[in-house]
Amino acid sequence: MKQSEIKELSTADLNEKLGALQKNYTDLKMAHAITPMENPLQLRSLRRTVARIATELTKRELQ
């Protein structure tokens, strides 16, 4: 998910998406620990997307 797409979403949508992505990331991380994934770069991109959304939420709280 790109930063421009994140900025267009409402705060409620961002909170909802953040929870879903964090759960998905945790599930993938556990699955990768048991059996290695075909493409471990999925973990990196998912982690960075979670960070982008969390950063946008923090920025909106400070304004």
From TrEMBL:
It comes from the Bacteria. It comes from Polaribacter reichenbachii. InterPro entries: Ribosomal_uL29 (IPR001854), Ribosomal_uL29_CS (IPR018254), Ribosomal_uL29_sf (IPR036049). Keywords: Ribonucleoprotein, Ribosomal protein. This is Large ribosomal subunit protein uL29. GO terms for molecular function: structural constituent of ribosome. GO terms for biological process: translation. Belongs to the universal ribosomal protein uL29 family. One of its GO terms (cellular component) is ribosome.
